[in-house]
Amino acid sequence: MIKTDTLIIGAGPVGIFCVHQLGIIGLKCEVVDNLDKIGGQCIELYPDKPIYDIPAVPECTGEELTNNLIEQIKPFKTKFHLNERVQEIKKLDNKWFVKTNKGTEFEVFSIIIAAGVGSFEPRKFSAKDIEKFEGKKLLYSIKDKKIFKDKTVSIFGGGDSALDWAIELSNSSKVILVHRRDDFRGAQTSIDKVNELKKQNKIEIYTKYQLESISGAEDIKCINIKHDDKSTKNIKTDYVLGFFGLIMQLGPISDWGLNLDKKKIPVNTESFETNQKGVFAIGDICTYPGKLKLILSGFHEGALAARGCFKYAKPDKKYRFEFTTSSKTVKERLGIKK
Ligand SMILES: Cc1cc2nc3c(=O)[nH]c(=O)nc-3n(C[C@H](O)[C@H](O)[C@H](O)COP(=O)(O)OP(=O)(O)OC[C@H]3O[C@@H](n4cnc5c(N)ncnc54)[C@H](O)[C@@H]3O)c2cc1C
C-alpha cells in the first residue's frame, strides 16, 4: 500500500503541472497513467506538432512541452506508475483507497482526476478466444524487444508502428507482416524499407489478410489468417503483435459514483472538486460553464485543485498564499539555494 497525500490520475500536461502545484505548497503525490509514457495527448497524438498558445512560450511541440513540464517537476522526485489504469476508488473514513488494474494500491487524502478524454487503450483484434494469450504472447505494445530475439513474430497493422517494429525486429527475429489492406499508410521511407527487406527475404508480407484464430495452450503454436477471398493460411509463430492505433475510453471512471455530464465530470470552479469530497477533476475531463479545452485552462484548474487538496492532507494547518519569487519555503521545496 503506497501512502501519499494525493494521487493524480493521468500524466497528460495538466496532470504533470499539477504535480508542481502540489509540490510548491508542500504536498506529496504520485501519478498513474495507462500509457507507457508521460505526456497524454501531447505525446501520443501530436508530439511533433507546434503549439502556439502556451503562455510565454511562442512555439513548442507537444514533445517539447512535455519535456519542459517534466523538467519543472524534477525537484519533487515524483513517482509515475505507467502502463497502469486506475480501476477502483473507495472512501473509508477520511482516506481514499485506490487500486490499479495491475494491483497497485494507494491510500491518499485526495484524488485529482486529470484523465483527459479517458484512458488511451489499444484497438484490439476482433478474433474470438484469444484473450488468454494477451500480455504474454499477444501484445499491443512492446516494453522489451529482447524477448523476440531469434523468435518468429507476426506483426499486424498497416501504419507507422507496425512498419517501424517490422523493420526493427527484422534484425534479430523472423518477421511476418500482415495487413488487411493492399497498401500501407505509414511514412513512405518505412514502406520502401519494408519492401526492400521483403526482397531480401528478411520480412514476409501478407496483405488483404486478417487474423482468424490463434492455436496453442500457454504458448502460441500457430495463427490462422484469412484473405479477403476467404482462403486461409496457417503460419507457425511465437508472438503476435497488433498495432491498430489507440481508442480513448472513459473506462472505469464511470463507476466511481461521480456525477457525469456527457462523459465529463462537473466541478465547482472554486476548487475543481467533484460531487465526491476529496475528489477533484481538472483538464479536458472536467466541465463547468465556460470550460475551454485548452492546456492553459488545465494549468489554472490544477493550481486551484492543489490548494483544494491542502485541507484534506493537513487539516490542522492553514494554507498560506505565497509567490514563488519571494517565498523562502517554496524555494527550499524547489531546491533553489539563492
Ligand atoms: C491534434 C491536437 C492538437 C491540439 N492542440 C492544442 C493547442 O494548440 N493548444 C492547446 O491548449 N490544446 C491543444 N490540444 C488539446 C490538448 O492536448 C488537451 O487539452 C490536453 O492534452 C488536455 O490535457 P489533460 O492532461 O487534461 O489530458 P490528456 O492529455 O488527455 O491526458 C490524460 C491522460 O490520462 C490518462 N488516463 C485516463 N484515464 C485513466 C485511468 N483510469 N487510469 C490511468 N490513466 C488514465 C490517459 O492515458 C492520458 O495519458 C490539442 C489536441 C489535439 C488532439
Describe this structure in words.
- The chain is an alpha/beta fold.
- 22% of the residues lie in helices and 28% in strands.
- The chain has seven helices and 23 strands.
- It has helices spanning 13-24, 40-44, 62-72, 160-169, 188-199, 295-313, 328-333; strands at residues 2-3, 6-9, 29-32, 50-51, 60-61, 79-81, 86-92, 95-100, 105-108, 110-113, 119-122, 138-139, 152-156, 174-179, 203-207, 209-215, 222-227, 232-236, 239-242, 246-249, 265-266, 279-281, 286-287.
- The protein has a five-stranded parallel sheet with strand order 6-3-2-10-22, covered by helices on one side. It has a five-stranded parallel sheet with strand order 12-19-13-14-15.
- Strand 8 (95-100) and strand 9 form a beta hairpin.
- Helix 1 (13-24) runs parallel beside helix 3 (62-72), helix 1 packs across helix 6 (295-313) and helix 4 (160-169) runs parallel beside helix 5.
- The longest helix has 19 residues, at 295-313.
- It is elongated.
- The two termini are 37 Å apart.
- The mean pLDDT is 94.
What's the structural blueprint in terms of helices and strands?
Elements: E1 2-3, E2 6-9, H1 13-24, E3 29-32, H2 40-44, E4 50-51, E5 60-61, H3 62-72, E6 79-81, E7 86-92, E8 95-100, E9 105-108, E10 110-113, E11 119-122, E12 138-139, E13 152-156, H4 160-169, E14 174-179, H5 188-199, E15 203-207, E16 209-215, E17 222-227, E18 232-236, E19 239-242, E20 246-249, E21 265-266, E22 279-281, E23 286-287, H6 295-313, H7 328-333
Parallel strand pairs: 1-9, 2-3, 2-10, 3-6, 10-22, 12-19, 13-14, 13-19, 14-15, 21-23
Antiparallel strand pairs: 4-5, 7-8, 8-9, 11-20, 16-17, 17-18
Helix pairs in contact: 1-3, 1-6, 4-5
